[in-house]
Amino acid sequence: MNTSHLGRCRLVVGFAALLSFAGVVLADDAPIVIKFSHVVAEDTPKGQGALLFKKLAEERLAGKVTVEIYPNSSLYGDADELQALRDDNVQILAPSLAKFGEYNQQLQIFDLPFLFDDLDAVNRFQQRAKGRQLLTGMQKHNITGLAYWHNGMKQLSATKALNNPADAKGLAFRIQPSPVIESQFTALGATPVKLPFAATLQALQDGKVQGTENTWSNLYSQKYAPVQPYMTETNHGVLDYMLVTNTKFWYAIPHATRTELEGIIEEVTFAVNNAAEQQNIAARQQLSQGKTHLISLTEQERSAWRAAMQPVWKQYESVIGSDIIHAAEQVNRKNAGKQ
């Protein structure tokens, strides 16, 4: 090889190295892009929470972080969003807790019917050791939980009055893809039908299903009332979300930036959970003033529903863990002195 050729080779190698180095510098200087995808409207607590996260992150970390929001399944829907997160095609999601059973069966604790007396009990459980532990239980699947976001307590709705468990027998109910919720309706003699959230209204209108379970805010905002004239205030379960991120992505963020983002998430979580509570109160009020028949259960009727569904606890005890179920039971006020 002559010296002129060797010189040209060294120049090419050196230029390539310079480009490579420049690329690293540019990548480090470029803002971190966080794609936040969700399946609900922007005027819901979750939708508003996503927008608040974007606002605060871009204000406090200007030039360091950019947040892109994709509401209403516009980027990914129920069926494919978690795989997209694991593949780092999206960096933050807030799926309902019922969607995580495939990755951590212990999270099915939140689907057990009549386990928590109210949302205060849910809060206490999520803030204690067992609840916090569940946030990190999916890291081997490249999913890290950042926070719990409330939607609210679940109610039952149908085309007929649901006063007692026997009233649900023979009806088809739209459910999330959760084996626990499937077992819950099977225990009532009803037919559970797994459908995406976005397909529920059409299925109710077509008569494919005759009932569903959801929070007051979702029952109202999704305009179910015309096809679900009866709604029963059962508070039989909790519909919460887990704010999750891609584990490798999250821990690759510089520590100072990540710490700031975690503080923002804590602040947004407080706002989301307050907004969810207020929206449920307002939605229930709106529904009560319309043509919907709101059914309030007597203590005896509620006990009958609980008794009909409680065998599901035993069915999933070995999967979820008796220790976690016991810890959840203890957060109810009536058990507070037994700890």
**Number of H/I helices:** 13
Sheet/helix structural class: alpha/beta
Instruction: Give the tally of β-strands.
Output: 9
Which bin fits the share of residues in helices?
40-55%
Uncertain stretches of 5 or more adjacent residues: 3-26
Rounded mean pLDDT is 90
CATH architecture: 3-Layer(aba) Sandwich
Structural summary, described in words:
- By secondary structure, the chain is α/β, with parallel strands linked by helices.
- The protein has one domain (31-338): Bacterial extracellular solute-binding protein, family 7 (D-Maltodextrin-Binding Protein, domain 2).
- It is built from 13 helices and 9 strands.
- The chain has helices at 3-29, 45-60, 81-86, 119-127, 129-135, 179-187, 200-206, 216-221, 247-252, 255-288, 299-309, 311-320, 322-329, and strands spanning 32-37, 65-70, 92-93, 143-158, 172-175, 191-194, 211-214, 230-246, 293-296.
- Strands 1, 2, 3, 4, 5, 6, 7, 8 and 9 form a 9-stranded mixed sheet that branches.
- Helix 2 runs antiparallel to helix 10.
- It is globular.
- The N and C termini lie far apart (82 Å).
- Mean pLDDT is 90; it is low at 3-26.
